[in-house]
Amino acid sequence: MALFTRRTVLQGVAAILLPIPARAQTVAKPAESVTAEGMRILEARKASQRILPSSATETDIWGYDGRVPGPVLRAKAGEEVSVRLVNKLDQPTSLHWYGVRIDNAMEGVVGLTQKPVMPGATFDYRFKVPDSGLYLYRPYVAPFTSEQSARGLYGLLIVDEASPPQVDRDFALLIDDWRLDEQGMIIKDFGNPADVGGAGRIGSLLTANTQAAPIAETFASASRIRLRLVNAANARFMFIAFEGFKPFIMAIDGQPCEPFEPVRRTIPVGPGARFDLMFDLPDNESDAAKIVLRGTNEPDRDLCVFKTQGAKRPARQPIASLPLNPLLPAEIRLAEAKKVDIVVEGGSARVALGAKTLWTLNGQPGGFDGKPLFSVKRGTPASLGFINKTLVIQNMRVHGHVVRLLHDLDDGWEPYWRNAVIVAEGRTKRVAFVADNPGKWAINCDVIEHQISGLCGWFEVT
Fold first, then answer.
1. Model confidence over 282-333: pLDDT tens digits?
2. Rounded distance between C-alpha atoms, residue 248 and residue 263, angstroms
3. Of 460 and 286, more confident
4. How far apart are CA 180 and CA 204, in angstroms?
5. Looking at residue 27, what is its pLDDT?
6. Which of 4, 286, 338, 416 has the most CB atoms around its CB within 10 Å?
7. What is the number of other CB atoms lying within 10 angstroms of the CB of residue 331?
8. Which distant-in-sequence residues (6+ apart) come within 8 Å of 236 by Cβ?
9. Residue 377 CB coordination number (10 Å)
10. Which letter, b or e, does each residue of 241-250 get, where b requires 16 or more Cβ atoms within 10 Å of its Cβ?
């Protein structure tokens, strides 16, 4: 699989077109959802929701505040997010703030940064969000993460810019898939060997929240749209294309970049990836505009169809860059970097050979119990090589930081920041970053079934 670059396109699925509510403080919720100290209460609990449109019954799901996705939490950069997680499940859980450059103790990685939140217990998360951007919250508690995510435990954290760009509509398009039986119930084969040692848990049902894709939305002609694209699926990699309009990528994994049009108007979206896009819809009502899932082993399918009607919106200024993050370094001193190669091996082939561990990193069993993959002092540049010797694609993520994807020919890096990098089977990809966030941080594959079965390790910033 080719990787996304400015120079070449990164050559399923559910879409949920979610209107984003007007910005409010995280604590600005109904009184019953807020503690006396002003903490937003977020309950992980069982509920039901109609997933199969043809089914007479609702699907038993697990959701934050009993719905999928969970409520949109909002703040501004520099503000404090205060959330009390209440665990009403029968399993331990946590809240992992996916992609946020967060205080280490609040990251929510069970076994590394905190103990599990047991059934009936609570845990208070308090942290300042340093960067504006688009983030996920979800569990990180092996071996339960796969089931909890597949049942619907995830939601959005949006950290607004000080002065958000003027648009006609602000949407989130959350991508997910579901593995349901004929009665619309979730198939309980979590952690089966074919998933954890292969491509991960991929459901056959593609949904648009509670509606089947494609979703149709109607706007005034020439409306300007901000689209927040998120892959919340456990394991599915996909290519998302845009037809009938010119999209500009404004931010990747929460971090703004100089706007650019993706090659062939197509982007690869790995598990956990987030993209902010902006575009103007067609002037004419007859012009088609849509978002399409490009099939790899299946036909293309429409995810969202935009219709225009009525009076044309007044002309706007050209789409301009979001404010770039001043807290990130302008350059990374690669000549001074701590260089570490991380060799990923294992999977189904390893199981077939009778190995006791499913995945290894640098020849050692994955997990958080052993020694760190490396240790660096705060402020040290680091260069990591992810060497994928498995038979399946991996999506390798560095926690607590954002990274630059280095060019394969060692001639620089891509002009955007990422949390994770897609590494095809048999390939090597390299990233660089400045280790400026102290603590013990995970490095893992974001295919959740790989993550819970050992494709994870950690590094330390002192």
1. 988 878 899 998 988 888 988 888 999 888 888 889 999 999 999 999 999 9
2. 11
3. 460
4. 8
5. 37
6. 4
7. 10
8. 12, 13, 175, 177, 200, 202, 271
9. 11
10. bbebbebbbb
